[in-house]
Amino acid sequence: MSNIDRDIDRRRRAVCMQLLGGLAGIALGGSARARPSVDEAAKVFRLDGAGVTYAFGVNKDGQLQSLYWGSALAPEDRFPTPVPVWENSSNETSTVVTPHEFPGFGGGVTMEPSLKVTFPDGVRDLVLKHVDHRVEGDRIVIRLKDVSRAVHVTLTYAMDAATGILARSAVVENRTGNWIQVDQLAAASLNLPYGDDYRLSYLTGRWAGEFALQTHDIVPGSIVIESRKGVTSHQANPWIAISRGNTEEESGPVWFGALGWSGSWRIHVDMESLGNIRATAGYNPFDFAYRLKPGESLASPVFHAGYSEEGFGGASRLFHRYQREKILPGAPAPKVRPVLYNSWEATLFSVDEAGQTALAEKAASIGVERFVMDDGWFGARNDDKAGLGDWVVNRKKFPNGLAPLIRRVRELGMEFGLWVEPEMVNPDSDLYRAHPDWVIHFQGRPRSEARNQLVLNLARKDVYEHLLAMLDRLLKDHDIAFLKWDHNRAWSEPGWPQVAPAEQQRLYVAYVQNLYKLLAELRRRHPNVEIESCASGGGRVDLGIMALTDQVWTSDNTDPLDRLLIQDGFTRAYTPQIMMAWVTEAPNFVNKRVTSLEYRFLSAMQGGLGIGANLNHWKEADFATAKRLVAEYKATRKTVLQGNLYRLVSPQHRSGRSATLSVAQDGSQAVLFAFLHASGMRDPLPRIQLRGLDPKRTYALRAIAGTAAPRTPRQASGAYWMGHGVQVVLAGDFQAAAFVLDAAAGPALAIPG
Ligand code: GLA
Q: Which domains does the chain have, with CATH numbers?
């Protein structure tokens, strides 16, 4: 196929998609209103919403079997009772090749189980069968039970009508008269239609290199992405997207999902022997065991899964909307992010009243709304070797406490924010000297330090209560509007000697549950305090922590070019509403790259804008540039943070350029960012065709930074900007431009079609 043929083919497919979409809309007549439905005769369950249908049923063996997940079907479409897949041979029995919704380990299951348990008598066989079901509002609740033992499982399927995103979770309950041990528990297993042209995308990384996009074919075998670290991790993020052969950024099917869990997690993606594609997501079974006494239960995290026919862009726009409207504090309308200043890169641990006050005064002069003092303000904290755990103000640095600094920050019209790392302790601290048993460790074994610190065992009641009291006091005693909540190391030696050996591995769940409880309780007591999730940068970003924190620190890597790539990866999974990005020094501390202040701003203005540069190094012109761009940001941030994001030109695959467009939900404004990494061979930047505008409205184009080609109209229809595009003038290295398009009031243009 030539390029031209390919292009025609692509357009033909796009037109077909549009037609199909239109027809589906007519046939379904507002599927957004559809509710979960049960066909009692066929024992088939169906959830419909926002152009998506998910169906499953009870087969003749009483097991839950997947039927369909994809674009919306007509309400009249009926599924027959599912039939287990025929045995292929004695090596591929029916049990193994049937697409189960929630297989227990037992009855011959050799694929990845959703639940595996051990009984006191050594039995490890669990065969779950349907008991009953009910519809509750937007959800279907299914109860399963083992064929002979009183192990009960409750599955919840809740579909969001606005996005078609399904939240799946499971609760296992021990109603036997003895303990049972849960060895493995997933939120869900999800099956896709058979096919050999699937591709998996996921995000991996490391410190200062988070959210690196990986995409490769799904072939027979398994791909496992996971964290074994007790925290979400930099190494992999609990998000996946599965596409098919022709899927592109703005077209083609994408099944996607993310696990809401901030501890060790695992997602298993399998292509089984007969070509079935399955994803199983839940607690990481690595070193996992959770003993349930009679009457106790264990809930899985929630796996949030969606489907889009509009490529990766469509998938992420749906997911962003879902996060804003369903997950984040303040949902369905979380507040836009205040412009913040953070002291870390400017002063490191050398914070004191005079220095921070001087920075605050300069920050206020450019329009910063929230001044955040980072590490170094407490205990004997002069570097990372001591003081963590001692959350008392360092009187050498702040002889009169924090009050004078906070007062000045407030006088300057800003909010005050503070860095904390509550879950950690330096062995060189009063807290550790008083409570050496409070850390995660094995009795009598070495305790591995990382950044000279150990992890407090938050699963312990006394540690939980200590942290709650400490943070509550800090917030009561000071006028604090924001906490940057850090977590700077992974777990090691995950022992919990205070409890019996058979109970110790509950740590993996109990710790995270208490973390969530602590955050929720602090928010309840201090409803006006906002919290940022940070873990040496983006090591704790997931839908679990997102429900309790207002924003995340994306990466310690603040180089604006590296950030374009990190942000591109990040937004595939998570909304720009939470994605904090700072303007820092040039050369950047990470890679010594030198870029202009304007370039640094435009890179950071695609998320929640922060300034982290040492303002004492700035010249008058820098303050003027910053002041202007902060004002531009404030005028456009709602669109950038909460609009529809189009990754028009991705920086992935060593692309020399990139561009994003954010379009306000009501179509009244759009913001375009364009970047050229390096000029070469007089390579002109192609016209950038916009997306998502209202074709019949008139939009006025105005440059925030950079210029459009001569003779670019000052205003034109949405159809023009999308069809013809904007020719941006960019030449040189590390160049950036940004434009705002504001819709004019007035009648729609008479554009045919
Ligand atoms: C982590 C964070 C940084 C900074 C330091 C302070 O590395 O990611 O932003 O807060 O800790 O020690």
A: 3-327 (2.70.98.60), 648-747 (2.60.40.1180)
